[in-house]
Amino acid sequence: MAHHTHQHTASADRTLITGLAVTLSYALIEALGGWWSGSLALLGDAGHMLTDATALGLAAFAAWVSRQPPSSRHSYGLVRAEVVAAMVNGLFMLIIVASIAYHAIERLRHPHEVAGGAVMIIAFIGLLVNLYVAKILHGGEQTLNTRAALLHVLGDLLGSVAALLAGAVIYFTGWTPIDPLLSLLICALILWSSVRLLRDVLHVIMEGVPPYLDLPEVGRAMAGVRGVNSIHDLHIWTLSSGLVALSAHVVIEDLSHWEDTLARLKELLKSRYAIEHVTLQPETPSPHPVPIELNLK
């Protein structure tokens, strides 16, 4: 018997679209400022913001697709569209990091004059914009999709900080290598976050047990429910962010009490583990059991 719950709201769409509009508007201003001032850090930050706009647009589209109803071809619906978008955005971020790192190394080899004062002003405004967008995304619905979009924005926020610091150092000391050096530092930070996100996305795609759940512990809790003899063939996986599924075979003494036992199991899984998408198959004890060693560790 299966229990299906798909809860998707439009809040993620509104959050992502708002962030898209703000980010795209300022990306053009910052790109012009970076070109005029000659700052690689500022141009890199503008590039980040432009890719952020793309990432936010993709995330918003994926959030809309994920709410489409199930069909005969996609019985779970398209909830994993958000996971796919998160993976694409994470890979996209790796490409951006590689590109900026390459140009930073080139700038170290061939220094370029930078207008430090203009860089500070534009980077400070960019910092405020990124803080605003990050606040919007952080306060909205948290999914792998919005996490990927937030990663892009946080990368931009760090880029704005780097550009601001680089502009200040160049303005007061004239030392231009600080511009590409700070860009490389930001690349390292973004690379670490991107790899973590891609690891989480891959875990979902490979249908791994959610990291905050312990499979043996869940099995023991289910086996402790009144009317249950044992649990086997237990599987727990993530369909999409916030949507966890569980299936298992439940051995009970009397099938006539199955409805009551099922209700107790579903209540346990919902209240203790927030698992509502449940498929449980009842079984009676085998008259001639075959010993099977089960290791859930």
Give the SSE layout.
Blueprint lengths: L1 E2 L7 H27 L2 H27 L14 H29 L6 H24 L4 H30 L4 H28 L9 H9 L4 E13 L2 E10 L5 H16 L3 E7 L14
Parallel strand pairs: 3-4
Antiparallel strand pairs: 1-4, 2-3
Helix pairs in contact: 1-2, 1-4, 2-3, 2-5, 3-5, 3-6, 4-5, 5-6
Summary?
The protein has 297 residues and is an alpha+beta fold. It folds into two domains: 2-205, Alpha-lytic protease prodomain-like, CATH 1.20.1510; 215-283, Alpha-Beta Plaits (2-Layer Sandwich). The chain contains eight helices and four strands, in the order E-H-H-H-H-H-H-H-E-E-H-E.
Description:
- By secondary structure, this protein is α+β, with helices and mostly antiparallel strands.
- It folds into 2 domains: 2-205, Up-down Bundle (Alpha-lytic protease prodomain-like), CATH 1.20.1510; 215-283, Cation efflux protein, cytoplasmic domain (Alpha-Beta Plaits), CATH 3.30.70.1350.
- It contains 8 helices and 4 strands.
- The protein has helices at residues 11-37, 40-66, 81-109, 116-139, 144-173, 178-205, 215-223, 258-273; strands at 2-3, 228-240, 243-252, 277-283.
- Helix 8 links the parallel strand 3 (243-252) and strand 4 (277-283).
- It is elongated.
- The protein starts with a strand and ends in a 14-residue tail after the last strand.
- Residues 1-9 and 292-297 have low confidence and may be disordered.
Largest sheet, in brief, is: 4 strands, mixed
**Structure class:** alpha+beta
Domains, number: 2
**What's the tally of helices?**
8
Multimer state = single chain
| Low confidence ranges | 1-9, 292-297
Q: Looking at this structure, what is the CATH superfamily of the largest domain?
A: Cation efflux protein transmembrane domain
CATH architecture title of the largest domain: Up-down Bundle
Strand content: 5-15%
Radius of gyration: 25 Å
